[in-house]
């Protein structure tokens, strides 16, 4: 069992998710491991993101053994023309992704799942992002910044990628990778407090 020093495990290596979860207030530790993140044939973005979040939460719960501490798994992907767009493999792949997103609207799907070894719950949140036309020179400069390399859709809305975005509809934090409102509601089901007073820290 937990000694009370933390309430939650975050099964994610994403620094953005760590930052967002820290802003929410729960005391947590991270778990790091690899899972197969390849979509199956004809899998929708919503189903894929939720399946990945569940896989991470369940795998993390096995690592946590009998601690009883809930494990939060998350996944975010882009959907365009009913196709799943993940992280770029290399520079040319990133340019291909950005060319497809340029001047168009796409969906950002974020899924969260929590498992404590006894019950497992999940939620999916979807936002819409509209992008302006992105010039080739801008793609070159953006790739050189290093920002697109590990980002779904080859851009980060919280960074330089915001320069390409002209409108969003939905959750800004969800587009970053962890929708705060929905995550807080899910964590409540496991007795995990957010917005804690300093006395409880």
Q: In CATH's first tier, which class applies?
A: Alpha Beta
C-alpha-based Rg, rounded: 17 Å
Q: Could you name the ranges where pLDDT drops below 50 across 5 or more consecutive residues?
A: none
Give the N-terminus to C-terminus distance in angstroms: 19 Å
Strand percentage: 15-25%
CATH topology tier name: Maf protein
Which overall shape is indicated by the principal axes computed on the Cα atoms? elongated
Instruction: Please tell me the CATH architecture by its name.
Output: Alpha-Beta Complex
Number of helices: 6
Q: What is the number of independent domains? A: 1
Instruction: Characterize the main sheet.
Output: 7 strands, mixed
Structural class: alpha/beta
Mean pLDDT: 91
Elements, N to C (H/E) = EHEHEEHEEHEHH
Query: How helical, in percent, are the residues?
Result: 25-40%
Topology of helices and strands:
Elements lengths: L7 E4 L3 H10 L3 E3 L14 H20 L6 E10 L2 E3 L5 H11 L3 E11 L4 E12 L4 H10 L19 E5 L2 H5 L3 H9 L13
Parallel strand pairs: 1-2, 1-3
Antiparallel strand pairs: 3-4, 3-5, 5-6, 6-7
């Amino acid at each position: 069992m937990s000694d009370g020093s933390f309430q939650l495990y975050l099964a994610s290596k994403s620094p953005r998710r760590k930052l967002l979860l820290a802003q929410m207030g729960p005391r947590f530790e991270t778990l790091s491991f690899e899972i197969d993140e390849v979509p199956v044939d004809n899998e929708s973005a919503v189903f894929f993101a939720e399946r990945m979040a569940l896989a991470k939460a369940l795998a993390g719960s096995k690592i946590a053994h009998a601690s009883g501490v809930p494990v939060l798994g998350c996944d975010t992907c882009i959907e365009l023309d009913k196709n799943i767009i993940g992280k770029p493999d290399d520079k040319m792949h990133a340019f291909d992704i950005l060319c497809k997103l340029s001047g168009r609207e796409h969906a950002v799907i974020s899924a969260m799942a929590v498992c404590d070894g006894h019950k497992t719950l999940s939620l999916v949140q979807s936002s819409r992002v509209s992008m302006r036309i992105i010039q080739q020179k801008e793609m070159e400069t953006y790739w050189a910044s290093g920002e697109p390399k590990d980002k779904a859709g080859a851009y980060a809305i919280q960074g330089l990628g915001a320069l390409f975005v002209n409108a969003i509809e939905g959750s800004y934090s969800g587009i970053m990778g962890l929708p705060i409102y929905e995550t807080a509601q899910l964590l409540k089901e496991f007795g995990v407090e957010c917005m804690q007073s300093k006395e409880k820290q």
